[in-house]
Amino acid sequence: MSTARTACWTLALAFAALCLVTPSQAAENAIDTRGYIYGTVETESGTEYTGLMRWGTEEAFWDDLFHGSKEDLPYLEEQPDDERRRRITILGITVGYRYNDSKGGRLLVARYGDIQEIEVTGSDSAKLLMKSGSVIRVDGGSNDIGGEVTVFDASLGAIELSWKKIERITFKETPASLDPPGYRLYGKLIADGGETFEGYIQWDVQECLSIDKLDGETRDGDLSIEMGQIRKITKESSSASLVELKDGREFVLRGTNDVNDENRGIMVQDERFGRVSVGWDAFESLEFVENGKSGKGYGEYKPGRALKGTVTDRSGGKHQGALVFDLDETESWEMLHGSRNDIEYIIPFEKVRSVRPDRWETAVVTLQGGVELQLGEGQDVSDKNAGVVVLKGADSKEYVAWKDVKLVEFE
Description:
This protein is mainly β. The chain has three domains: 4-70 and 106-171, no CATH class; 186-297, no CATH class; 305-410, no CATH class. Helices cover 5% and strands 47% of the residues. The chain has two helices and 32 strands. Strand 1 and strand 2 form a beta hairpin. It is globular and about 65 Å long. The model is unreliable at 1-29 (pLDDT under 50).
């Protein structure tokens, strides 16, 4: 796999060419820019850099996901101590109990398009101002905090900024006049059992542009292939992939986490669900398609709203009001996580109609379009869920333990 610095320099050289592109050339070779992350970075020295951005060698688009560990979790105290004991079962038989410490950290996951501003507060921390007006403090939790941010300034070219030198990042609508060096990857993925996903691609949770490289070893030596030259990738085994180029040549690659079971996941921005991450065990093949688009623009991400709805408990009681799901998710831009068959679903709550606990380890999630998914493993859809708080007013709230929840319906 290419090193982060090599990948950044490849992008830097390509973006530097922006300064040499004439208006007529830009119009002739125009790439849709609205989906690319854009804004202004202010450093501690008071200098500002404005342009397209990329987090390390990964996130570059508004629907990519920013991760961080939430610092403020005021509703966790609503869960009684006796509700944090979870039974352990084998073939339906209780064999013991485990203590679920829900007072531990929780992960914030937000699309960059939902964030208005990021204020750096430490070497591994930040304060996020969401479009909804909410302020969320995060501390570590991923390489999105504490790493490097590259800004492709139209006058200066690529500027790599370390986190500790950044004061503030302000996001803005992406101008249509820019000319990115590569287009966004889009494709159709087939998973085990024939299940199909279609949308924008982030290969190995990293490569998302046509100029990004897929690395591997062949009998003739190492290859580093631009993603834009690839027509199809098919899993050959746990240790190798068949790569078909647009020019008709085929190579079996192995030896790197781009092409074997060390792959961190193939992410698909499938509009039916949100973000889907397909693990290597479930992956079968991916065929790339050039659709000429880059995703939704910054202005298309509307400010999030408070989660509201009704919790029906197992005795038939109904609890209606603003909801705090799993004691930490309160707004429509936040994400519901769940998995099945080595496929992880990361679904914005704005797409969720209802959640119905099915068994101890799973729940049926119904989306706004009527699609039903039986998901497990994740904190949100298993017995790890810490329950739901229903806010009925300034001084009125009710706690419903997950074991007592029959159905959660969102307005």
